[in-house]
Amino acid sequence: MKSIRIGGVPEHFNLPWHLCIENNEFNQEEINVIWKDFPDGTGAMNRALRSGEIDAAVILTEGITRDIINGNQAKIVQTYIGSPLVWGIHVAADSEYKNLADLKNTTAAISREGSGSHLMAYVNAQNNGWNIKDLKFKIVTDVDGAINALKNDKAQYFMWEHFTTKPLVDNHTFRLISDCPTPWPCFVIAVRDEVLKYNSDRVQKMLEILNHKTRSFKNIPEIDKILAERYGQKLEDIRNWLKITSWSSSQLNANELDEVQKKLLQLNLITKKVPDSEILYSL
């Protein structure tokens, strides 16, 4: 049995993967899928892909696109979540900052350079007419680091997925200022070029199994309760999240990729646009 090592965030989006693993659905096709959680997010997964620590990743569209352009030897093989990601913009619960305008010229806590929290801070700044050259960042590694940074005023705001962070809003660790959705499908699946060169058939079979699961995922009996229990979420929040979230088995299309590249270029996060063939791979 051959193995594929895949990384992803330990969040509710990735439950279909875990169900396939737990039910031995990959193993039945002689594929050993080894999952690794990356609570640090996209920046950490980019590094793991580059080093060969993992073979594939469920990763933010803008983050992997930027890293491929900057030399990551990997390709996007399909979209995973076809809907936008809703980024909550959070401050400490007792913060003096009350609205987005108050956060201009303050410091954003980010997990690491090139992460979603980093790139979306630029998108949020542009949305609000801020000068992106004035943005300041504090690298905090993960959510726990962000809690500490905001509590001690080392950073003033933190952007993270709305529903994942909601328990910290409910317990008055954070206060939600606003939301900032991505302008494109949020999660894609990326695979290292070396793996695609020698094992594309195995990758394709793995995705067929996964996509079969995601197509029926919302119809699993009591899936809302399963998600709420596994991920420490309120049932009402999970139901709201399911309403706005859609899984996809399609490849990122040319218009979507062009939008991502244009935005990254506009924000000076890449120096050039590249042909689709340098980023996308069709199995």
TrEMBL record:
It comes from Autumnicola musiva. PANTHER family: ALIPHATIC SULFONATES-BINDING PROTEIN-RELATED (PTHR30024), TAURINE-BINDING PERIPLASMIC PROTEIN (PTHR30024:SF47). The keyword Cytoplasm does not apply. CDD domains: PBP2_Ca3427_like. InterPro entries: Ca3427-like_PBP2. This is Substrate-binding domain-containing protein. It comes from the Bacteria. Its main location: periplasm. It is found in: Periplasm. Residues 89-178 form the Ca3427-like PBP domain. Pfam families: PBP2_Ca3427_like (PF22384). Keywords: Signal. Belongs to the bacterial solute-binding protein SsuA/TauA family.
